[in-house]
Amino acid sequence: MKLIYKSRSGHTEDITSLVTRITWSGTLSEAARKLEFSVLTSKMDRNLPYVAMEVGEVVILYGDDKQELFQGYIFRKGKTLSGLEVSYSAYDRLIYLLKSSVSMKFKDLQAEKIVKMICADLGVPVGKLPDSKVPLSFIHMGKTAYEAIMVAYTLVSKKTKGRPLFIPRMDKGKLTVVASGEVVAKRTLSSASNLLDASYDEDIESMINVVRVIDQDGKLFDTVENKGWKDRYGKLQATVQKEDKKDVKTTGTAQLMGMQRTASAQVQGGPDMIDMITGHMIKMNHGLFGRTGLFFVGGDTHTFENGQHSIQLDLQFQKMMDERVAE
Known about the structure:
The chain has about 325 residues and is mostly beta strands. It has helices spanning about 95-100, 110-120, 145-160, 225-235, 250-255; strands spanning about 1-5, 10-15, 20-25, 35-40, 60, 70-80, 85-90, 100-110, 135-145, 165-170, 175-180, 185-190, 195-205, 210-215, 220-225, 235-240, 260-270, 280-285, 290-305, 310-315. Strands 1, 2, 3, 4, 5, 6, 7, 12, 13, 17, 18, 19 and 20 form a 13-stranded mixed sheet that branches. Strand 3 and strand 4 (about 35-40) form a beta hairpin. The radius of gyration is 23 Å and the shape is globular.
């Protein structure tokens, strides 16, 4: 691994030898990838170089194959009085879309055009985007730029045959949008080699198997249900109001929620396991899950310390995207 610091003036410096720990992580819901690292520092020790990195400056992380893994901006730094390390937290440029609100009206525009309009307004470079060919119209008032982009791709997903799912991602400083689960990690996880531990959970705490749709007067208009879920787990009901110009069955079905299944894995990492990141699929062979197959990575944390690489994965049993709805 190599960590490069780039100052506002354009000066670059390799700080890898000063770094004691690196954590590179991401989740589906938080969108922006995060880099946390600690750097040895002492103004009193002449043998220890002092690097004055400031909030807002750039750091770039490269893998052992010299491929760029992360490019982002320092958002936090901290140090204790007695400590010899300064801790930093940086985010890739998606953070600016998450923290900036926009008010725009979109009419008969493709998702890629919407993305380019938003990013031009915020000064975020744009890379490769899928060709959606779906005209979209919606109003986005006072919400984040990220939400507007995900509203657009949620609409594209719902209007496209096969229901493709999408994930925004930064690639060498440019915003790209990729297909969820399109990439399958090279290595297979196995308890016989690299899988240190794993867990599995299933719950019905959020289940909704009956939806009552009421009209403006509070009278029952229609009912949507999943009979199989209701018979097996008991009636778990929600009530929603009928919306004008929206199909009642579609409104009700959207509220149904089944059993939630999640898994996690602790993995011994390696140079060929950098591709185990949020939005990718992994192959896993473990009897705990009662199956050998593909799992979707909903969250990942890669830690590099003392020459060791460890990975914590949050796994889902199906591909996902961070769906958002226009209001």
